[in-house]
TrEMBL record:
Enzyme superclass (EC): transferase
InterPro entries: P-loop_NTPase, Sulfotransferase_dom
Protein name stated in the entry: Sulfotransferase
GO cellular component, one term: cytoplasm
GO MF, one annotated term: sulfotransferase activity
Residue span, Sulfotransferase domain: 60-304
Subcellular location: Cytoplasm
Pfam families per record: Sulfotransfer_1
EC assignment: 2.8.2.-
Protein keywords: Cytoplasm, Transferase
Family in the record: Belongs to the sulfotransferase 1 family.
Length: 309
């Protein structure tokens, strides 16, 4: 490698050291075990989970974007940023998504969270049992987005390829087996969704469907505004819809992770904004794998009222 390329990658690494507290030598595809929950190790510590769970102060005007990974997290981050700027795209074009709507459980974000001004927009993949305890004493709001787990599984497969801090199994069948087990990150999709659904009916939590968002983004954005008590005019709503479209986000350097160095996110083969569709699992699951997935789904979700289009 040419010397200036080595220096380039060192400078890049140092710039992101502050952002993600990561350097090539500290990056590993390994998991942290937090009370039986597996998490990508490089970005979390037991201390950072405890901070989010037990210490985070929660204000009444906080808004939490909660998802199981690959269910539309970045999409909601963009929508929330745009709603709170009344449709002005400046913030989404000038500030990184992870700074606008940071993850509360990642150790690199604590300082950022503590410097945010209210109303704070926050993101988390935490299951309900490790969600900030102070939330339950507040009037803060949660938006929880659910996506067809087979598509989540496919999307996670490619994400694990991109993100150099995620454990990865190249063999898709093996990957699916882990997804169906309790070993999957953040307590696994099934426990995550079931846990959060126990709050259904509570006035400060809105459940969204990724597939419904795809079908009718405007209607869902209007619904989110109503839930948040944000009164945007038609032009502002149009701007939220346009600037949070798959195409706009894929092209937005502040939301597409293109600024993240390759040693953390390698998008050479697959883009973070991969397809953004419903039903891609049909291109990946064999009939046998599909049957196995359905069997586990029906066992684990038998008491849950949930359908996917
Ligand atoms: P695919 O990998 O299926 O394409 P998360 O943000 O939770 O990590 O989820 C990422 C998934 O959401 C990816 O799915 C990505 O393409 C999709 N996505 C992100 N922004 C989107 C948008 N504006 N519209 C539709 N899908 C979007």
């Amino acid at each position: 490698m040419c010397p200036w390329m080595i220096w380039g990658s060192k400078i890049e690494a140092l710039q992101f050291r502050n952002q993600f507290r990561m350097l090539p030598e500290s990056l590993a595809r390994s998991s942290l075990d937090f009370q039986g929950m597996k998490l990508p190790g490089t970005v979390h510590t037991a201390e950072s989970i405890n901070y989010a769970w037990k210490e985070l102060k929660v204000f009444d005007d906080d808004v939490f974007n909660v998802t199981y990974p690959k269910s539309g997290t970045t999409w909601i981050q963009e929508i929330l940023s745009l709603i709170y700027s009344n449709g002005d795209p400046t913030p989404v074009k000038t500030e990184f998504s992870w700074d606008r709507v940071p993850w509360i459980e990642q150790h690199a974000h604590k300082a950022k969270i503590e410097s945010l001004t209210s109303p704070r927009l926050l993101t988390t993949h935490l299951p309900l049992k490790f969600f900030p305890q102070n939330f339950h004493k507040s009037k803060a709001k949660v938006i929880y987005t659910i996506r067809n787990p087979k598509d989540v599984c496919v999307s996670l497969y490619y994400f694990c390829k991109i993100a150099q801090f995620m454990e990865f199994r190249e063999d898709f069948q093996e990957f699916v087996a882990r997804f169906l087990s309790k070993d999957e990150v953040y307590s696994g999709w099934f426990e995550h969704v079931k846990g959060w659904l126990t709050l259904k009916g509570q006035p400060n939590i809105l459940f969204l469907s990724y597939e419904a968002m795809l079908k009718n983004p405007r209607e869902n954005i209007v619904n989110i505004c109503k839930f948040l008590g944000k009164d945007l005019d038609d032009a502002a709503i149009d701007s939220v819809v346009t600037n949070s479209s798959f195409k706009a986000m894929k092209e937005n350097g502040k939301s597409n992770y293109s600024a993240v160095p390759k040693f953390i996110f390698n998008q050479d083969e697959v883009s973070f904004y991969r397809k953004g569709i419903a039903g891609d699992h049909k291109n990946h699951f064999t009939p046998a794998l599909d049957e196995e997935f359905d069997k586990t789904y029906h066992e684990l979700m038998k008491d849950v009222d949930l359908t996917f289009t």
